[in-house]
């Protein structure tokens, strides 16, 4: 889970956003809380999908169908707005890791008993999904979450309703939808997809849970190889325990009509009696309890001081003040009107570590550290799985194996350490309950930020050396000690991004310190943009429209800016802008600036230089949007992303761009380190 980014909204509907859970093929998923305190997952739909013809109708149909599934084995659909500019849907949040995380990273293959109970829980989920007229179509380990009382199926993002409809429905052919390694033969072939397709995917998922491997080859084998094996070859079930072999084989029949049905699965995996033992090994149960406590430990789970940090971004207490000190002027480029120089002083982009992204993410997509695998105290079950005699028996009324009710069962699936495990689990449950109650009753620490301070505040000031610096703060709700927003500080040649941690809030304003997140150039996170433990203050004016920022002897007046939006750029500026010129050596060049739509913090400007005669690229730069105010865009310093053969490409200062007064087909460009120069001009290139 990552922190919110400045381009993320504060709220969606009645839900206050707390963090980013991930991003899938359809859009971004956020952790949020409702006004009544329920924790939910809110998925927003990508702009390009929402603009597709007929998408909103299909999206609404799928939400309506998903609402019929129920919430025992799946994440319930709670709310949605399919007509919003950015469509969204809110579902119940499942406080547990995915099967992919548990098996592939944290723990390893599950014991036989846990796999059988996993199969039973997923069969219940599929019965509810299919009963609602849906085929999930993407049943894979990352879409199965593990909780103390059983598995849950999530992400109906590519589910399709069984009912026929224009452009939708399971009868559609020619489309391949699913995840390689966990698809059915009919999905691979683009044939009609029925509920039996989910059974095949379940077989691959159970094999993965039991062995840690997919039955048709490693996921990095290549998409086409995996799809061929799924469609044409027998599964490799090496390492699948004997008690599970027949069950998984019956799921993986190539022909849909030959596969085991959901009802037969329920009957085959039903315990003889409900057991008091947890369905997962004790070590995993403890891990799930810790996860739940951490989630409820604060109003903002991402405000904890133990958030992971990117390599090269240590928490320090610098002696140098904020804002960052720019390099000396002799490193600053000197662009002249009408020409973007190709040589001269620069701030060179530092080489990143091998395999590192070429540009920082916004504002801190920090990878979680790899947990140490937990050794399993769970012994192998004494009993073994035997399918009902005479083939798959008709379904009865299965007992839920996760309820913990009913007498203890001797032999069979019961582990030899069952009584001790049950006692430990019961104790853990009491501890979790106590912590949760204390957390909920405490309501967090004091010093809560007044709502008047929440929002975006931006402005600029001039240093004693006549250097212009820009500031942008985005403040969210929170208590003392929590992360309550983000900050951007821009000098002509350095852009710093910080996390804002609330020190205190009183009648004198909001007092905070800053923790380095990312920078342009990248190496400044440990230099000019490093952590700053000296307290700064934001104090709102009486009319609520101005904010005064103070830091030691420095001060700036800030004004309200546009909130988080993915359409921050004025539409008149979203275009290609071109300038042609001849340099001192009589070489003809074409400079094209491309400005895209997006949010503050995004990489929204591309500056490309080509030779006019050959069309070959000389240099390509990209710049992040820092501020939008009064029709003017402020972009951060250059990031060099491409260089032609034998080209000399420097990087340059941050820039202002705006439309020329009275001429919507011309933009004017001014570099922050040369504001006194006449602006360069580019014309619209349609």
From TrEMBL:
Binding locations of ATP:
43
Full protein name? Protein kinase
Compositional bias (Low complexity): 337-346, 379-394
- Care to name a GO molecular-function term for this sequence? ATP binding
Please report a single Pfam family linked to this protein. Pkinase
Where does the chain cross the membrane? none
Q: Which domain of life is it from?
A: Bacteria
Show the ranges annotated as biased composition (Pro residues). Answer: 347-357, 366-378
């Amino acid at each position: 889970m990552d922190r919110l980014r400045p381009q993320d909204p504060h709220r969606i509907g009645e839900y206050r956003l707390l963090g980013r859970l991930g991003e899938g093929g359809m859009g971004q998923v956020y952790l949020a809380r409702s006004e009544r305190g329920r924790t939910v997952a809110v998925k927003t739909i990508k702009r390009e999908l929402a603009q597709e013809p007929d998408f909103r109708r299909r999206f609404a149909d799928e939400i309506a169908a998903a609402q019929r599934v129920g919430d025992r084995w799946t994440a319930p659909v709670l709310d949605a707005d399919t007509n919003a500019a950015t469509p969204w849907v809110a579902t119940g949040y499942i406080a547990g890791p995915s099967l992919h995380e548990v098996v592939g990273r944290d723990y390893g293959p599950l014991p036989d008993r846990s796999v059988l109970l996993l199969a039973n829980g997923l069969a219940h989920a599929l019965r509810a999904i299919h009963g609602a007229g849906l085929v999930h179509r993407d049943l894979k380990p990352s879409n199965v979450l593990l909780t103390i009382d059983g598995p849950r199926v999530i992400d109906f993002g590519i589910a399709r309703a069984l009912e026929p409809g224009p452009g939708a429905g399971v009868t559609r052919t020619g489309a391949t939808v699913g995840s390689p390694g966990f698809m059915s033969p009919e999905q691979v072939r683009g044939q009609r997809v029925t509920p039996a397709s989910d059974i095949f995917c379940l077989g691959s998922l159970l094999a993965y849970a039991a062995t840690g491997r997919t039955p048709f080859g490693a996921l990095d084998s290549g998409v086409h190889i995996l799809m061929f094996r799924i469609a044409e070859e027998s599964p490799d079930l090496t390492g699948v325990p004997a008690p599970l072999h027949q069950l998984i084989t019956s799921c993986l029949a190539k022909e849909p009509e030959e596969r085991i049905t959901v009802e037969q699965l329920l009957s085959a995996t039903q315990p003889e009696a409900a057991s008091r033992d947890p369905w997962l090994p004790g070590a995993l149960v403890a891990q799930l309890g810790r996860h739940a406590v951490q989630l409820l430990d604060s109003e903002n789970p991402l405000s904890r001081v133990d958030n992971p940090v990117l390599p090269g971004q240590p928490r320090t207490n610098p002696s140098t003040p904020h804002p960052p000190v720019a390099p000396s002027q002799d490193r600053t480029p000197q662009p002249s009107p009408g020409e973007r120089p190709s040589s001269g002083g620069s701030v060179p982009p530092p080489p990143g570590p091998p395999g590192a992204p070429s540009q920082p993410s916004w504002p801190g997509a920090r990878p979680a550290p790899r947990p140490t695998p937990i050794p399993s105290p769970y012994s192998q079950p004494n009993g073994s799985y035997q399918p009902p005699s005479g083939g798959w028996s008709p379904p009865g009324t299965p007992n839920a194996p996760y309820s913990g009710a009913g007498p203890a069962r001797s032999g069979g699936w019961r582990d030899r350490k069952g009584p001790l495990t049950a006692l430990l689990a019961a104790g853990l449950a009491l501890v979790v309950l106590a912590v949760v109650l204390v957390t909920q009753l405490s309501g967090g620490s004091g010093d809560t930020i007044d709502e008047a301070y929440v929002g975006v505040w931006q402005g600029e000031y001039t240093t004693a050396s006549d250097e212009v610096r820009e500031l942008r703060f985005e403040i969210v709700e929170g208590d003392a000690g929590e992360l309550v927003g983000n900050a951007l500080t821009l000098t002509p040649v350095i852009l710093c991004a910080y996390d804002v941690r609330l020190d205190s809030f009183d009648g004198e304003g909001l007092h905070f310190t800053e923790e380095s997140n990312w920078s342009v150039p990248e190496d400044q996170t440990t230099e000019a943009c490093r952590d700053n433990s000296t307290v700064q203050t934001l104090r709102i004016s009486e009319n609520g429209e101005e904010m005064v920022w103070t830091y030691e002897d420095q001060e700036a007046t800030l004004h309200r800016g546009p909130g988080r939006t993915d359409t921050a750029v004025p539409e008149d500026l979203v275009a290609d802008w071109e300038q042609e010129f001849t340099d001192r050596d009589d070489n003809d060049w074409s400079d094209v600036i491309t400005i895209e739509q997006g949010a503050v913090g995004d990489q929204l400007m591309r500056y490309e230089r080509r030779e006019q005669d050959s069309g070959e690229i000389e240099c390509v730069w990209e710049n992040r949007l820092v501020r939008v105010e009064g029709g003017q865009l402020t972009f951060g310093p250059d990031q060099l992303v491409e260089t032609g053969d034998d080209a000399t490409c420097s990087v340059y200062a941050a820039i202002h761009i705006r439309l020329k007064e009275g001429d919507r087909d011309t933009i004017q460009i001014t570099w922050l380190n040369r504001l006194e120069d006449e602006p360069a001009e580019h014309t619209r290139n349609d």
